[in-house]
Amino acid sequence: MFPDLKNKNVLITGAGRNIGRATALEFAQAGANVYFTEINSERLGNLIEELKNSRYSTIKATGFRADITELGDTTMIFNELNKKDISIDILVNNVGYDRERVESLHIIMDEWIKDYTTNIFGPMNLTKRVVKEFMKPRQQGSIVFVTSIHQEVIRRHPIYSSSKAALGMIVKELALELAPHYIRVNGVAP
After folding, report:
1. CB-hemisphere CA count at 13 Å for 65?
2. How far from 25 is each of 8, 35, 36, 43, CA to CA, in Å?
3. How far apart are CA 6 and CA 185, in angstroms?
4. Which of 27, 51, 90, 110 could bond 61 through an S-S bridge, CB–CB 3.0 to 4.6 Å?
5. Is residue 103 very low, low, confident or very high in pLDDT (cuts 50, 70, 90)?
6. 35 is an active site residue
7. What does pTM read for this prediction?
8. How far is CA 41 from CA 3, 51, 146, 165, 173, in A?
9. Mean pLDDT, range 91-108, rounded to an integer
């Protein structure tokens, strides 16, 4: 049984495959309008087609070819949404980067920066934009971060695990900070 999310607008990052794709389809099944980002054009097109099939014909679905680590791409997304007078009700920060395992002593600084930018800084920039939108009309909102069980369980992959652990704490901090504004923040750790 799906919750009734009819007329709710969800924005999902990194929705072209795996958890992001499944999340987009579940929200569509529940009646939400699905707006999503995907860096890969082929995956973006495939998900748009899947969302526009007859089973989900009552919803609106729009994909943005975007890299949320780029401030210009985040601005473009909100400019497009604002042009269409669309306000987001739910943000799902799903995008993440997971490279092949590398021992700590062999990781170069650029790898730390790239992974943290994708897994933490990009989602936080997007979250700040959405929170500003939530606070304008004093509407309720929901933010979900897809973290990982490896925020708690050692994987022997220090960049990935530590970035997901940081997200786990960010979820707790934001949940307390934003609760008085009727904004719910949760983490899902597959």
Report:
1. 7
2. 14, 11, 11, 14
3. 21
4. 51
5. confident
6. no
7. 0.92
8. 30, 15, 22, 30, 34
9. 80
